[in-house]
Amino acid sequence: MEPKGKVIIVTGASSGIGLASARALARAGARVVLAARSIDVLQTEAERLAQAGHTAAAEEMDVACDISVGTAVGRVLQRFGRIDCVINFAGNGGRLALWHETAPDHTRAMFDIHVFGAERVARAVLPTMLAQRSGTIVNIASTVGWVAMPSAAAYSAAKAAILSLSEALRGELADRGVEIVVFAPPHTNTGSGRQWPLEGPRIFAPEWVADELLRTLRRGRHRFLAGGSNRLLLAIHRISPRYAAAIMRRIGLRAVMKAAAV
Prior knowledge:
Blueprint lengths: L6 E5 L4 H12 L3 E6 L2 H13 L3 E6 L5 H15 L4 E4 L17 H9 L1 H17 L2 E6 L2 H4 L6 H21 L4 E7 L21 H13 L4 E3 L2 H12 L1 H21 L1
Parallel strand pairs: 1-2, 1-4, 2-3, 4-5, 5-6, 6-7
């Protein structure tokens, strides 16, 4: 998908990778809708993009609320008349902790944002995309969706669910003009990313990740895991799931000890 001229909604666009991606898409010529709960932040950013000669709009959207999602999508359609792509960046991994030490509603909260939030947005935009017989829904995955990480059990489970949901929807919509894309960012230098003190060779800038997303869309990839070390871990997982799990266990347990010490 070439972004130029496309109407693209980016959820979670008030900060981090979502904001960096909205900026990159606007520079690529897309008509970008920045969506999140922080409407003041979004409006300021949309004005900056407009002053730079780009087309951008701000929409208040809480992906945990059906009414909020439906209202925001309705306003986008009123303004632009179509929706070509939605990118479900809303959500974060939270603070690392052992599952049995987390609050009882922690897993439900993770699923409500990452899984049901993405589903709410997809349900809201899908009728328009089906009527257009074109559209792209980008769901955000993670390495831990493939290889679960101890100390991030709920987040790992939510991202595994996103992977399965996306694969199923791709099969259902393959002949109806709607593409389902799975994009998995690497460990990124954002507010939420810094809550995960992982041992690794590199922590990536949000702008680098946004450029990778842009390349993923342009190259028509159905699934892409950004970051070489993450792809290496998945290659190991295909050969020896037990060894990959051992690597992730060491990473996760060391990280949760660091997080607890902060």
